[in-house]
Design a protein that fits this description.
It is a single chain. The chain has a single domain (2-516), classed as Sodium/glucose cotransporter (Up-down Bundle), CATH 1.20.1730. The protein contains 20 helices and 4 strands. The chain has helices at 2-27, 33-38, 45-72, 78-104, 111-118, 125-157, 161-208, 214-220, 226-230, 243-250, 260-268, 272-303, 320-330, 336-374, 380-401, 409-433, 439-458, 473-477, 481-499, 505-516, and strands at residues 235-236, 239-240, 462-463, 470-471. A hairpin with a 6-residue loop joins β3 (462-463) and β4.
């Protein structure tokens, strides 16, 4: 495979150079903080849609989800169902009102700034809390993207994981550092297109080349419960799925309305007409991508047989898409460059999320924390400088978290997704649709949501009855922390808002202006 690897390397190099060139192109167009964080609110419908969805799905779409289906069966697809429902609801019910409200609320550039302006928080309590939540959970989220990138390079080129991690992190850092929001969105548009082409073409070709029928191959590969159980969405690892399992998987969809790197795309679209176009494009993209990502896991189990990832080889099941592409294209050097381009689709999924996370986290530190609290008279030049320094610092910290090659992409994404969804989701939705919600309610919602996830996922306060092993509430109950955190946050927002002072007449008028479109 010597010559094949050269062609794959050329494909990767061409792709990564293109990303850096785009970053360099937009560095001259980034003149102020609004350009760096929102691109001057000039996104068109196509770029907004594909950049939002590409930044959303991350390496999870082409590594985590197919790997789970490959190992355990289509019962893992309940997550995809939840994410599709969440995506549709986010575009239909959150996008338009959030764009309007961020304009009406003093032209807010970031989610923390929106919350501060929406609730007239003169003491900047929301700004501090929400900025801290963003930095904490984005460290974990960015680490998941870098981990996926390290695994990709390590698997394809056979290089040391730490070297592979360093290469991927460096390229992402360069173009995000240089070009800001527009560079991130344009690269995400390209990456979203590449991802869709990859999930459309690769599994269909692999299916056409199966040496036997799918069911027979699945049975031969030793799937638990046989092919009928493996292909049954109501079973997981040969067992009937429980109600708690389904609730936990569907609860992933609740996360969308609290994801800062997705919500910022809604804020940046140039007009509501373009936003209408974005809704249709994004919903179609996510439907195709999720269905085909599940298909990759199923086809990969049959196509790669007699190799069984994680059993007959030490390669992780999360590498199933990589291994299918390798067998289809790269083992035959005549197709290696094409295979390299498809592998770039996985790299695209990883980079499109990591760059957005770095940018949003830097905006929380520079725009919200530094300018909003410590130096209110800071010039745009100073804010841009602090933003770029913050991008580097957060990238380095996430890199250090990702150094463990045994880190699970799925596990890291799960924790960060729950944190954002529970902390911000209920507050964002109610801020858009319930005029009675107030500042104390919003604070209670964000704090309780984030705290619930941290306690549920990280504190071993329970014990296994048989072994006596210390367990977290999540491990003990099997219930996803996002479902619990979202509910607690929602309840506390309503209760606290109801028993405290009503919003001012000015806040109520702003709410009515947004509702009627008078901005």
């Amino acid at each position: 495979m010597g010559s094949s690897i050269v062609w794959v390397l050329l494909a990767f190099a061409a792709y990564m150079i293109l990303m850096i060139v785009i970053g360099a192109k937009y560095v001259k167009r980034t003149k102020n903080s609004e350009d760096y964080f929102l691109g001057g609110r000039q996104l068109n419908g196509w770029v907004a849609a594909l950049s939002a969805q590409a930044s959303d799905m991350s390496g999870w779409l082409l590594m985590g989800l197919p790997g789970s289906v490959y190992a355990f069966g289509t019962g893992q697809a309940w997550i995809a169902v939840g994410l599709f429902i969440g995506t549709v609801c986010n575009w239909l019910f959150v996008s338009t009102r959030l764009r309007r409200y961020t304009i009406r609320a003093n032209n807010s550039l970031t989610l923390p700034a929106y919350l501060e302006n929406r609730f007239h928080d003169k003491k900047k309590i929301l700004l501090i809390i929400s900025s801290a939540v963003i930095v904490i959970f984005f460290l974990v989220y960015t680490a998941s993207s870098l981990t996926a990138g390290g695994k990709l390079f390590s698997s394809v080129f056979g290089v040391d994981y730490k070297l592979a991690l360093t290469i991927g992190a460096t390229v992402i850092l360069i173009y995000t550092f240089l070009g800001g929001f527009m560079a991130v969105c344009v690269t995400d548009f390209i990456q979203g297109t590449l991802m869709l082409i990859g999930v459309l073409v690769v599994p269909l070709i692999a299916y056409a080349l199966l040496p036997d029928n799918l069911v027979a191959l699945l049975n031969d590969s030793g799937v638990v419960g046989g092919a009928s159980s493996y292909l049954n969405i109501m079973e997981d690892s040969g067992q009937q799925v429980s109600v708690i399992y389904i609730i936990s998987q569907l609860a992933w969809g609740l996360g969308y309305c609290g994801m800062p790197h997705i919500l910022v795309r809604f804020m940046a679209v140039s007009s509501e007409k373009e936003l209408l176009k974005s809704k249709a494009i994004a919903i179609i993209w996510v439907a195709l991508s999720l269905v085909l990502a599940v298909f990759i896991g199923i086809i990969g189990r049959a196509y790669l047989f007699p190799t069984i990832l994680g059993e007959t080889t030490n390669v992780s099941n999360e590498n199933v898409f990589i291994e299918v592409i390798t067998k289809l294209f790269i083992e035959d050097h005549n197709m290696a460059f094409i295979g390299g381009l498809f592998l770039c689709g996985i790299l695209a999924a990883i980079m499109s999320t990591a760059d957005s996370q770095l940018l949003v986290a830097s905006s929380a530190v520079a725009e919200d924390f530094f300018k909003g609290i410590f130096k209110k008279d800071a010039t745009d030049k100073t804010v841009l400088y602090v933003s770029r320094v913050t991008v580097v610092v957060i990238a380095v910290l996430a890199y250090l978290i990702a150094l463990n090659p045994n880190s699970s992409v799925m596990g890291l994404v799960s924790n960060a997704w729950a944190g954002f969804g529970a902390a911000f989701g209920p507050t964002v939705v109610l801020s858009l649709y319930w005029k009675r919600v107030n500042l104390p309610g919003a604070i209670a919602g964000i704090v309780s949501g984030a705290a619930t996830v941290l306690v549920w996922d990280y504190l071993p306060i329970c014990k296994d009855i048989v072994t006596g092993e210390a367990l977290t509430l999540g491990a003990k109950t099997g219930l996803y922390s996002l479902a619990v955190g979202f509910l607690i946050s929602l309840v506390l927002i309503v209760v606290v808002s109801s028993v405290t002072k009503k919003p001012s007449a000015e806040m109520l008028q702003e709410f009515e202006d947004v509702k009627s479109g008078n901005i």
